[in-house]
Amino acid sequence: MRNLIRLDSPIRRARGTRTESRRLREWVSERLGLSDSDTVSVNEVACADPGCSDAETVVVVFRAGNPPLRLRVGKCLAEVTLADFDALI
């Protein structure tokens, strides 16, 4: 029993995460002119980098025939603003 795997997330999710995730997906889709066949993934993940908060937001854009576009912001999803992504695109 020593090798148990912890399945719950180490990051505490803020209220409204689903709404904020949807907002970012819609914004990225509009900003990049994506079609219905393209996919945008928004995730909040643990960040181990020294200058990063406990979590970072990662957006990955999948377009047919193109390599994935990865955008990372060193903030939890609840703190991310559209200006953070404007700086990356």
What is this entry, summarized?
The chain has 89 residues and is α+β, with helices and mostly antiparallel strands.
Explain this structure.
- The chain is α+β, with helices and mostly antiparallel strands.
- The chain has one domain.
- 24% of the residues lie in helices and 24% in strands.
- It is built from 2 helices and 3 strands.
- The protein has a 3-stranded antiparallel β-sheet, covered by helices on one side.
- A hairpin with a 6-residue loop joins strand 2 and strand 3.
- The N and C termini lie far apart (47 Å).
- The N terminus is likely disordered.
Which strand order spans the largest sheet, edge to edge or round the barrel?
1-2-3
**Given the structure, what is the number of helices?**
2
Shape, per Cα inertia axes:
globular
Mean pLDDT: 81
Strand content: 15-25%
Structural class comes to: alpha+beta
Largest sheet: 3 strands, antiparallel
Q: Report how far apart the termini are.
A: 47 Å
The helix/strand series, from N terminus to C terminus, equals HEEEH
Number of domains: 1
Please give the radius of gyration in angstroms. Answer: 15 Å
Helicity range: 10-25%
The counted number of beta strands is 3
**Poorly predicted residue ranges:** 1-9
